[in-house]
Amino acid sequence: MMDDATKTINLLIETERLADKILQNKHEIVALDKRRQHTREAIREVEKSDEKKAWIAVGSMLIEMKKEKALELLQKDQNVINQEINKLRSDQKVLVGQHRDLEFADPLKGFDLNPLSRDEVGAFRTNLPGF
Amino acid sequence: MTDAEKLEIRDITRIERIGAHSHIRGLGLDDVLEARNVSQGMVGQKDARRAAGIVVNMVKEGKIAGRCILLAGEPSTGKTAIAVGMAQALGTESPFTSMSGSEIYSLEMSKTEALAQALRKSIGVRIKEETEIIEGEVVEIQIDRPATGTGQKIGKVTLKTTEMETNYDLGNKIIECFMKEKIQAGDVITIDKASGKVTKLGRSFTRARDYDATGAQTRFVQCPEGELQKRKEVVHTVTLHEIDVINSRTHGFLALFSGDTGEIKQEVRDQINNKVMEWREEGKAEINPGVLFLDEAHMLDIECFSYLNRALESDMAPIVVMATNRGITKIRGTNYRSPHGIPIDLLDRMIIIRTVPYTEKEIKEILKIRCEEEDCTMNADALTVLTRIATETSLRYAIQLITTSNLVSRRRKASEVLVEDVKKVYSLFLDEGRSSRILKEFQDEFMFSEVLDDKSTAMDCDDH
Question: Could you tell me what this protein does (chain A) (predicted)?
Answer without folding.
Answer: May play a role in chaperone-mediated protein folding.
